[in-house]
Amino acid sequence: MRCPGCARTGCAGLPNPIDSENTVNDAFLPFALPEIGDEEIAEVVDTLKSGWITTGPKARRFEQAFTEFLGDESLQSIAVNSATAGLHLALEALGIGPGDEVITTTHTFTATAEVVRYLGADVKLVDIDPATLNIDPAAIEAAITPRTRAILPVHYAGLAADMPSILGIAKRHGLKVVEDAAHALPTTSAGRLVGTLQSDATVFSFYANKTMTTGEGGMLVTRNPELAKRARVMRLHGMSRDAFDRFTAKVPSWYYEIVAPGFKYNLTDIAAALGLHQLARARGFQQRRAEIAAQYDAAFADLPVVTPPGPRAGDTHAWHLYVLRLAEAAPIGRDACIEALFAAGIGCSVHYIPLHQHPYWRERYGLRAEDFPHSQHAYERMLSLPIYTRMTDADVQRVIAAVRGALG
Ligand SMILES: *Cc1c(COP(=O)(O)O)cnc(C)c1O
């Protein structure tokens, strides 16, 4: 069952954290809540009344607005119904298939890696840099074999992975790069927005708890016109023309050609209506989350914890997650800390149980925790605190007091 507060499955069976007025219940601060304003709601109503509710004019406008947001007209933005779909389409368009290997981090959500398996290719999981919790470029280089075709970095928590090193490795070894930017709107790397870097494709997520949301949704961004063309066709059943084209173009509306066995990955106009207004607010949302992160950093400076790494000077951290790690000197362990926070009415979570710990990945590739010492070490000590724009300053203070109460 999905928790209505944090939108995650299997969330400890807590009482409903949202009351009937859809406001945060005083008794419990959820781990995450989307911020949906009147403009989003009016736009959805407009869509519902328009008669065009699936992929159509608003999905187009959302794609154009997304490219404008990234500020690079050489990019194409392709709206999809999840980031998982976008990652799958990007790898498919790059021709990844059986016999190929794709390198990614063990410190991520399973969606990052599962798409490689959809295509019959193999996943090579590697460890993280303990300072940033992002994929370690040296570990990538060590994992390259003659079968390696692509690198799939994740901008963990909203902090850019070391893209200059990763793009350098890819260039030297002739590998493709697809960025999992599910946490990274907006994030910069050396002053440039993630989405505009020199990778082959970048994929953003608009899942309910991400930095902006369309309920479910994602965006595939690329500057490669061939990749874009293939992804657009495969997004909708491998049809040569999408439904909006067919019903608005001058040629007969009933005619189309199937050129491949494609997927059903298009984003609805209902979702795009939300996205148009969420995107317009994305920078403001980021500023609020950065403010909360700064308050946490200051408040926890004297506790036996490792606060999350900030961005490099001049760069933007999207602050999708605020991941606190308990130091050796902490009076209690991670599990007890989460229990204490729940008891104090604070929702928190763990991002993520590393992939090498899950039965499927462990057994499929014979993985051992010792092979991922940094991810394993972080996993055993980390928890994610609430960090979202609907939190008031009083909510932030409440989290701080609960953490200090548990660890002080
Ligand atoms: C949320 C998430 C995804 C999947 O996004 P969906 O839009 O839910 O498919 C992929 N990778 C990471 C790192 C995520 O956090």
TrEMBL record:
Any Pfam family hit: DegT_DnrJ_EryC1
GO molecular function: pyridoxal phosphate binding; transaminase activity
PTM sites of type N6-(pyridoxal phosphate)lysine: K210
Gene3D superfamilies per the UniProt record, alphabetical: Aspartate Aminotransferase, domain 1, Type I PLP-dependent aspartate aminotransferase-like (Major domain)
Cross-referenced InterPro entries: DegT/StrS_aminotransferase, PyrdxlP-dep_Trfase, PyrdxlP-dep_Trfase_major, PyrdxlP-dep_Trfase_small
GO biological process, one term: polysaccharide biosynthetic process
Keywords: Aminotransferase, Pyridoxal phosphate, Transferase
Active site per UniProt: K210
Domain of life where this protein originates: Bacteria
Family: Belongs to the DegT/DnrJ/EryC1 family.
Protein name as annotated: DegT/DnrJ/EryC1/StrS family aminotransferase
Organism for this UniProt entry: Azohydromonas caseinilytica
